[in-house]
Specification:
This protein is of the alpha+beta class. The chain has a single domain, classed as Frataxin/CyaY (Metal Transport, Frataxin, Chain A), CATH 3.30.920. The chain is built from 2 helices and 6 strands. The longest helix has 23 residues. The model has no long low-confidence stretch (mean pLDDT 95).
């Protein structure tokens, strides 16, 4: 069932802002972390980018990763997490895994 619009926006914005803060605090001195107009861009020294944003029409968070490609996440109210539409992984798990591959740093995003 789709989330109510106001709840979706609040939840998605909080999630993306939290991810931005955690990554910036952990490795922001080694990569460029930019949150602007609700779009989180994480740029590596190589020029590769992770882009995370909300997609209001589908009530999803979308991520583009240089490691795993494009993925979409629905909010699972039972687990209170953003779960992949293609598998059992969560947004936080996939992003942490992909960042570790590219930066060598494990970051706890949950």
């Amino acid at each position: 069932m789709a989330l109510e619009e106001t709840f979706f926006h609040r939840l998605a914005d909080e999630t993306i802002e939290n991810i931005s803060d955690v990554i910036d605090d952990a490795i922001g001195d080694r990569i460029d972390v930019d949150l602007e107009a609700g779009i989180l861009t994480i740029e590596l020294d190589s020029g590769e980018q992770f882009i995370i944003n909300k997609h209001a029409l589908n009530r999803q968070i979308w991520m583009s990763s240089p490691v795993s490609g494009a993925s979409h996440y629905d909010y699972d109210e039972d687990t209170e997490s953003w779960r992949s539409t293609r598998g059992a992984t969560t947004l936080h798990e996939q992003l942490a895994t992909d960042l570790a591959v590219k930066t060598g740093h494990k970051i706890a995003l949950d």
